[in-house]
């Protein structure tokens, strides 16, 4: 066969000869390995169980755990431990000591369940909302009503107060009446003329409690806008921890899921201090949805104030507190009404999350519509908020809560997890946290304690024996992605004031689950998507970050530790603060290149509008554009250049900003720079196989291909700044391109031809080594086929575990350079053993493995240890009404949040199926 035939047949693969001593992989650390969220159900943990689980996690390739206590299992109440009690702290200390002995790290949530809150949150510190009541009054009428709160749920609260009372007539003339209300709620005012509507604003409470709280963690959710609430909350941890951090690497705060919290007791004063005027005369505009300019301006100022309050009064205080403990913090900013970029940047480890399942074009990748969320799917541009904040400010680690509701319970294979985690890597994230792992006492039978919405990375999972395949892949990839700095060339401004000026609603929550409303319709999102497809690499930047940026030698940089960028893009927008435009022009003055997609139309907010609007226009007038034709205007500005065009691609071409052409093949990439070179992480999520020279912006003097699935590496072929890449659909690789040449590294072995495949459609012995509820009987197969085909043996229909397929093969000669064992269908993963030697784990598409170095001339024994899903055993348990889900709170639900029941499921195919072939491979010389 020639190389074209090989590509068409899809049989080339990663391969090379003996490994040299010189290893290009970065040193592996505990942070490079995947971590997992570790739920302590009811905090019913003990030292023996903690020791056993941490040891199992370590052997499976985990680098650390993140402790999140939640509700408990019924019947185990006498084993519950109250959160932060002396006994709980003793278990925590044991955990961190044991983890340290295993070279693992430990993080923990600052609370139980989510969102942040607990018994230490009293009424005063609880999440707060504004409650508005309206009244009417006319001149000459006696106003007999009392302006007191009518909400029955709020009446018994001691902290309720009347904040603002303002009356409006038909002409929208306002009179602030706050000081005209007596202690009993009587109004001491009567209008001289006309009919007036009175708006009374009370400070109320959301009354939201912590969701999925653990014993000792129940209570109100926190007021994130109050500095006193944050400080009071953390005092409980000060009491429990003393001067120690108990070995905690990072304290974690989950996503902001506080509902209806849109106020704080001191909001009126904070608003005036931050926005420059009293909100009281404008309260009508804040609580209405009138489509007018004034409403949009008032709401913009209100939302900006909320953003600043959560940044200064929660996020920064949280960071300062963990630093006082000589620890770090991890924060999920999404879901909050704040500027996500600034909130992520204010912590040590910004964390995003993926929820749901993505559609990939990879042939053979299972994605049953019945087993995935109907609406939610991960969005790479949403993930980039966290990575952008980290990249521009120089944070080494960007984490991600990964695989939440990836599929229906018990139906997730490691092959399905691979492209999802690759998409996370492509967003710039480099520190994966699985969702997740549940602590289970040793005496709890299969399937152990489980948490809903999770892929359940637990030893009871029948796929657990092969989890090291996925974990090793992630560890190798992250060891590279945690090295050096991000190497994105473009910055794109987030025009958040266009969001904040929306006259509808009050607060705007920037959630993972509603990106189709606030993110996807925006010009910025379209630019992010289109430019990435073209081959450009981007990070986002906020107004605050622009104000902190410097320009030197034509590059834009926010911090010394952060990345530097070639161009700042201002996407199509309506509102741009004059202060931000001032900072942009200062960057250009000092040598930066800036692209405006349109002329900013207006300033944001309601303070000194005409004065600030005039300043914006005056600043813009300083740019003396020259028409270059083809929808491009340009201006030299100091040492820099400013381009005005709706066509960003043409603008970048004008500025001679080079894109990566590799995306023209459909390949995706993320790039990092280090002293002396650059890394490329390249992924093939297309339906086709790639074998060609790929042009790169940087090749250096040597390019080393590194295979993250098995650690193999070799020097790549380079021609005219192009690197030859062979990637099958579903595969990925890393390139290490350097200015130095290491002659000790052998050449990468490209597959040039292959002989006709050797078919293994022959007799196989099938036995079963572990799993349940019982082991099916052994049998001799004429051809390899799934064990679930043998319905006459009922055990095969309910079995989840490991089946072993064994056969022999006589190799008449061993002339090929290597031999590729390829499975047509595999349910779900396999360990391959050749002549008693482990060749590796086959766990991802394409299902194949090189086994040449383990084979010999003559008789060869091949064993395939196949692990299947948990689904069939759970189906059996539900059909036979064997109790296994019995928890407090939400118990255990299916992907549609209904009571879980697998009894009507079809039997999931398990084992080997279709063709099994051995391809003799010949490498290029």
Structural summary, described in words:
By secondary structure, the protein is α/β, with parallel strands linked by helices. Among the domains are: 490-654, no CATH class; 661-748, Sandwich (Immunoglobulin-like); 758-869 and 908-923, Galactose-binding domain-like (Jelly Rolls). 24% of the residues lie in helices and 27% in strands. It contains 20 helices and 44 strands. The strands form nine sheets. The protein has an eight-stranded parallel barrel, surrounded by four helices. A seven-stranded mixed beta sheet has the order 17-16-21-22-25-24-23, with helices on both faces. A hairpin with a 2-residue loop joins strand 18 and strand 19. Helix 5 (267-275) packs across helix 7 (293-324) and helix 16 packs parallel to helix 17. The chain is globular, with a radius of gyration of 31 Å.
Radius of gyration: 31 Å
Principal-axis shape equals globular
Strand order of the largest sheet: 1-2-3-10-11-12-13-14
Uncertain parts: 1-21
**Major sheet attributes:** 8 strands, parallel, barrel
* Overall pLDDT confidence: 96
- Overall structural class, as computed from helix and strand content, comes to alpha/beta
Number of helices: 20
Helix content bin: 10-25%
> Strand content of the residues, in percent?
25-35%
Total number of β-strand segments?
Answer: 44
Intertermini distance: 16 Å
